[in-house]
Structures are given as structure tokens and as C-alpha cells.
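Q: What would this chain look like folded?
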Amino acid sequence: MEVEYDDSGWQGRTKQQSTTEELHEDNPQKTIQECLEKFLTPDYIMEPGIFTQLKRYFQSGGSPEEVISMLSENYKAVAQMANLLAEWLILAGVKVTEVQAMVENHLKEMILKSFDPKKADTIFTEEGETPDWLTEMIDHYTWRSLIYRLAEEYPDCLMLNFTIKLISDAGFQSEITSISTAAQQIEVFSRVLKTSIVKFLNNPDDVHGAIQECARMVCHGQHTYVYSQVLIQVLSQEQKGGFNMKRLSQEIIKYALQNNQNVTPITMALNGSAVYPQACQALTSMLTRNTLNPADITVLFRNYSGSDPPPIDLIRNPQFLELLVDALFRSGVKINPEHKPKYVFLLAYASSVIDQPAKKRPLTERTLNKDELKSTIQAIEKAHAICNVDQGSTELIAELQTLYNCIKYPVVGVGVIRWIENVVMEPSYFKLSTDSCPTHLAVLDEVAGVHPTLQQQILFLLIRLFESKQDELEILVQLEMKKVILDRMVNLLTRGCVVPVLRYIKQCCAIEDTDISLIRYFVTEVLETITHPYSAEFVQLFLPMVENEEITGTMRGEGDNDPVSEFIVHCKAHYTTV
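A: My prediction, written as C-alpha cells:
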């Protein structure tokens, strides 16, 4: 439902009320009676509309003595009694902030219990404009949070929706975490979306969290999804930072698919694929079913290997690329040898060819750079041949040099992570492994060193391994296995993935479900690896672990010459810690 909040709408209601009042003014006795009924209500003298009603009453010839008597007799002083009780509590020794919170929380409870959206909408009818008290209310977080809760419960209340807009206009849109509240109005949603996108762009250390937050909001409904994706697609055309917006768009698509939302028709409508009906139909068929099939793959292969291929963005669809990587690198997936080269070609084409539309010329004259296509195809084929064979660590060592050469290509790095994930997550993997560092995990170190953008994926895999149940292993063997995984995390840290690794270990400390000896091992390895200068964020995350007596008590010497003491002394001297 679209809601308009222009001034004329509220003025229109005011005029209607004014017309009713004018009819009553023609009948003074009726006006006086109407006013007296209001004056009889408890504490009416405290109502915002008291002066308006007194003016009508006197203009109609009402008696001053009568109105004074009625207002006095019905004055219960509820608000004043509350203030008096608050003063008594303060005199009794209760902190002012506690008393204020007590009063505010009780008021919030009463409002939540008795709120009437119809009566709330009449506020604008009576006032004719935005009440001053409402403007004052939104200056305080306590009452803004109340508005957010009420807006969730009563999404159709005009007064609440208008107040949400006022809050957004005042610059507090980052507080509006309820998607259903923001999605009611395009102006509010646009501001909240902007805040979310800015957070994604300005927080490189927490990209995953920012993406999840933005995607959850965008995928709230079809209208929010279409509006946001169109906006993001326009921004992705910008030369400066456009690739970041394209990445955000793809992550949103991925999030929608993970939540069983079929966004394929919208995606295909926005990417201009209708100009290429054959490729569009083949791709739509596979994306809708979330599975590849040789017939549609053949259609795409024929289109992209021809002299006038469709735009490359068509097959740079996250879902399609995931399906191709799964087909070629996930263990147990069998592909017909006759069609395998087509799968390899499409994956290599999507990841290596540069499609540059020529400016001020027809689309058919765009430039295609295929310099790396052939070498990428060869790398995928070699890596696929290694990964597709069920071999242990010993046999894999002989293929390492070939695999390392192939890993230099980003698409192979993605595929190898998928393959290793499939292998090491098998319950029997560590039970059968006899190496101090399993070869598959050593390969992850190589991928992390060559491709920094894949480090987050590798960290997620290591976290899953670290938290996995290995009940078949003895306790000491489990501890040794987890130390190996911590070594891989330390390697990630040395490669630049510092903050995400430290945040995870800090989380393990806070939850207290990790053996303290493992935390001690991690801290020891990091201290042996690092040297100053340190960033303030690094110190903030790592120093509390180093200072923890339970973790590092046994690592300290009598003087200040041990690594633990040296680190603490250096941080205390050069950094302000919270």
C-alpha cells in the first residue's frame, strides 16, 4: 500500500474538521456542551488541545466559573504525582538515571498496552500540523525505540509511518533495523539502504557481516528486491567502484537463493538477456532448477564459442558459476566425457575473458580479450584431473607442483577450496591421516598466499573444521588436529587476514568452549610471528588475550624479557587501550 505524506493530505483532514466545527459554532449551546464533555475527562487541563477548546467555549458564551470548576474538580494530577514520587526516590538515594529509566520504561509499557492507532491518527486532525511534542520525542532514543516497536505492530498507522519518516529525516535512519518498518516508505527505505551500502563499502574487515545485513534487508519482499537491485545495477555501471556494487548485487542474489527465494526471473530481466533468447532460455532453465544439464550447456557452449557471443555478464551469474565449480571439482560428481570440455570452456570463459563494449559504437563491435582463455582452460583441465581422482596425501604430493602452477588462476583456487572442503569434512579424514600437516591443508596455505580475496572462504572452512565433532579420535589426537588447524589460521593471519582471525579466536575465548591450551598455543605462535608496529585494532583484539593470566601465566618469565611481557610493555607504552 502506498502512503503519501504531503502537507495537503493532513490539511485536507483539518479542513474537514474545521467544517464540522463551523457547523457547531452556528449552534453555541451544542458547542458549549461538546466542550464541557471534554472538560469532564480526568486531567483534561494537561491535554495539548486545551487552549483551542477554551477559545471555542468562551466564543460560544460559556461561563468562566463553570469551566474553572470542572477543570479543577477533574484535575487528578497523575503526571505531577509521578514527578513527586520520582523526587522522593531520588531523595531516598536512588540514582537519577535509574529513576528516569524506571519512569520511561513504565510509560513505554503503558503505551504499548493501550496504544490505539485510530486515535493516534486523529492527532494530525486535531493539531493540523506536526505537534511540537512529537518533534521533541524523536530527539530521544528511548522514545524513538518505542516508535520502532509500535510501527512493527501497527504498520498501517499513518501517524507512526509519518513519525518514522520524521526520524529518518532527522538522520537516525541507521537505527531503523526493522526491515518491515523501513519498507513501508520508499524515502525511509532508500536512506536505510544507502546506510547499509555505505557500511559495506567502508568496512573491508567485516565485508561478510555488511553483506548479510544488506542482503537481508533487500530480500525482505519483491518490491524491496527489485528496487534495490535496479539501483545497485545503475551504480555498478560507474567506473569508480562499480565492481564493488556488482559484487554486492551478486552476493544479494546468492543470499536470496540460500533462502529459497526464486529471483531468477528478476535477475534475467535486469541483465538484458532477452536480446539473446537461446542463451537466456538455456540459462533460465538451469538456474530455475538449480542443476546443470548437457542440453542447455551445449546451447551455451555453441553461443559463446561462436563469432558473435552474448555478453559475458550473462554467464557470470553466481549461481551458474557455483554449479560449474561443483560439477568440475566436487568429489563424486560424474560428467559425460563428451560434454566435459564444454563445462570447462564455459567456466574458463566466464573467469578469464574481458568483454569491453566499445564506446559510441554498436554492441556488435565490442572488444573481446581472450588472451588468457586457452591457458585457463588448460589449468582447469589439469586441476580437474588431479582433484577428480580419489588419492591420499602421499599420492597427492607427486602432483603438488602441477597443482600449485594451476592454483595461480583464481578460478582454479576457488575449485581447489571446494574440492578440499569435500575431502577434509569427511568424518574419517583425520582418522586416516598420519601426517603432522595433511597435504590438503598445506594446499590451502598456497591458495591463501596467492589469492587474498579467497582468504575469507578458507577461514570459514577452517572454522568449520575446528568446530567439527571428531568423537572417533582420542582427546590428545583431537587437540593435535586442532593445533594443525590453528597453524593454518596463523598462516592466514601472516598473509593479511588479521582481524577476522583474531575476532574468531576472541569469540572462542568469550564463549569458553575451547580448551585453554589451544588458545595458549595460538597466542604463542602469533607472538613468535609478529613484530611492531601494530595497528590499534590489532592491539585491541590481541592484547586482552596476551594479558589473560589463565592463557599466558605459564609463558611469562621473572623479568620482562619473555615475548609476552615484551608485547604487553610495548603496547602499554605506545597505544591507548580500552
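Residues 28-76 form one domain.
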